[in-house]
């Protein structure tokens, strides 16, 4: 499906990223992981990458261009945030809100801008960003009752902006042979409290919370030539939670 494609996975050492890297490699692609840590095996290149650093991104592009002479696609699922990220609404300071939006949304802006410029020069390209169901859906705070969890306000603000940024860039690059899409997953199992999982699953249609593997097929499809006319879209994977 992806034979001989060169694909960069930004945030490839994370919960979803490690599964994606494995699946993309197994489908024949050359995989480069861009991240601050390397949690994968040896079947890929690793490049230290902070998406809030224009210098890091440009160095990564130059590395790929010099070694492979092309880049077919970028998948960005990085999740930059500061140590105070995740506080409840009234506990979020203005400074932390601005910093976290700048890190997350600002980083996604840089990735879109700099890789779009490279793809313009190359003549083609494919960019996939990751948002969330809480980028377009108001939080269901009731399912968090009885836990210490919440939906961080800066997370919702950033993820909603990423969806619109995707559409903006896709339209801006009209007739340039560059596809720009977004994926919005629902909740992914990661040792959450049972009370939360039970409440969450009641809002779904079949399975409930997702495994990381449940995201992989959609990404492979968007990376393949089978999706060459899908552009400017936000694809939701949530087992109907948002209905």
Question: How does this structure look, described?
Answer:
The longest helix is centred in the middle third of the chain and has 29 residues, at 94-122. The chain is built from six helices and seven strands; from the N terminus they run βαββαβαβαβααβ. Helix 2 runs parallel beside helix 3 (94-122). It has a seven-stranded parallel beta sheet, sandwiched between helices. The model has no long low-confidence stretch (mean pLDDT 96). Helices cover 39% and strands 15% of the residues. Strand 1 (6-10), helix 1 and strand 2 (30-35) form a beta-alpha-beta unit. With 243 residues, the chain is α/β, with parallel strands linked by helices. It has one domain (6-234): NAD(P)-binding Rossmann-like Domain (Rossmann fold, 3-Layer(aba) Sandwich).
Concise summary:
The chain has 243 residues and is an alpha/beta fold. Helix content is 39%, strand content 15%.
Keywords:
243 residues; alpha/beta; Rossmann fold; 7-stranded parallel sheet; 6 helices; 39% helix; 15% strand
The CATH topology comes to Rossmann fold
Oligomer: single chain
Domain module count: 1
User: In whole angstroms, how far apart are the ends?
Assistant: 32 Å
Number of helices: 6
Range of helix content: 25-40%
CATH architecture: 3-Layer(aba) Sandwich
Shape: globular
Number-wise, the strands total: 7
**CATH C-level class:** Alpha Beta
């Amino acid at each position: 499906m992806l034979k001989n494609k060169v694909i960069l996975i930004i945030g490839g050492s994370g919960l979803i990223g490690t599964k994606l890297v494995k699946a993309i490699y197994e489908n024949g692609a050359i995989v480069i992981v861009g991240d601050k840590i390397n949690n994968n095996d040896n079947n890929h290149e690793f490049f230290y990458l902070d998406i809030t650093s224009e210098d890091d991104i440009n160095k990564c592009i130059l590395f790929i261009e010099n070694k492979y002479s092309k880049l077919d696609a970028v998948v960005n699922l990085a999740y930059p945030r500061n140590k105070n990220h995740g506080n409840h609404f009234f506990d979020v300071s203005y400074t932390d809100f601005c910093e976290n939006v700048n890190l997350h949304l600002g980083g996604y802006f840089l990735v879109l801008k700099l890789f779009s410029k490279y793809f313009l020069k190359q003549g083609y390209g494919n960019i996939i960003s990751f948002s969330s169901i809480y980028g377009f859906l108001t939080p269901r705070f009731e399912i968090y009752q009885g836990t210490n969890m919440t939906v961080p306000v800066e997370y919702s603000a950033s993820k909603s902006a990423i969806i619109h940024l995707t559409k903006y860039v896709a339209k801006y690059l009209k007739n340039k042979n560059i596809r720009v899409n977004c994926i919005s997953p629902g909740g992914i199992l990661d040792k959450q409290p049972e009370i939360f999982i039970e409440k969450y699953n009641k809002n779904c249609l079949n399975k409930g919370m997702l495994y990381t593997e449940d995201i992989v097929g959609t990404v492979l499809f968007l990376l393949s030539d089978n999706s060459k006319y899908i552009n400017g879209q936000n694809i939701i994977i949530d087992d109907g939670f948002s209905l």
